Amino acid sequence: MDAIYRIPVPNVELLNSNNTFVGLSNKIGRIYHEEANFPLTARCFGYELFKLDKPQDTVFLIPDYQDLEEVDVKPVNKMELYNEILSYSSDHVDRSTSVVSGVYFESAMVVYKSDTVYLDNVCEMGIEKVFQKKKYAYNLHCQNGRRSYRNETKDMEDFDTTLLNTCLGLIKKFKDNLKYDLISTKPYKLKFEEEEIIRNTDNELHRLIFEKDEKDKTTVITNYKGRQLYTWNSAFLSSKRYDGDGLFVNYKRFNRYHEFSTAPYFLKTIIANGLVQIAVDGKFIEIYVVKGFMQNDGLSIAPDRPVKNVEDYFETIPYGKESASFYTFERK
Question: Model-level pTM greater than 0.85?
Answer without folding.
Answer: no
